[in-house]
Amino acid sequence: MSAYEAHFRVWRGDQDGGGLKDFHVEVNDGEVVLDIVHRLQATQAPDLAVRWNCKAGKCGSCSAEVNGRPRLLCMTRMSVFERNETITITPLRAFPVVRDLVTDVSFNYTKAREVPSFVPRRGSVRANTGCGRRTWGGRRSSASASSASCARTPAMWCGTSRRTRRRSPGRGS
Question: Which residues belong to any copy of the 2Fe-2S ferredoxin-type domain (predicted)?
């Protein structure tokens, strides 16, 4: 496969309103939608507002609706779309729009602060249940529970081929 030109419709505007704007942009093999949005910023719309952070599908910052469905822009591969398909990117409907694809997600942070942190019972044994899940007395920690609520762990990380990290000598037990 080689590079091709795709048709994008990207929502532009703010809390007072806006609309979809058409773009034609080059797409290369292996790219995700976030790569295309960055190319749009670099070549055609330098003022396009988009939020992203990890580009690994963990933080959820790049959430938007792609063709009407909520998606992580960093995890949505361009190969899932037909080459002649128009790809529409809009901000998430569940949150108020700040500008373009950026939404106000402060509600999430407010609610997260209201949830009490998990504190293990005194004397409970800390166990590693695999695949990054830490438990104390059979209960998941707040850190692993909160990260699990934000993103799914790819199945390939949970397989038997997963290497366990060993602690270097002298770094505690």
Answer: 6-93
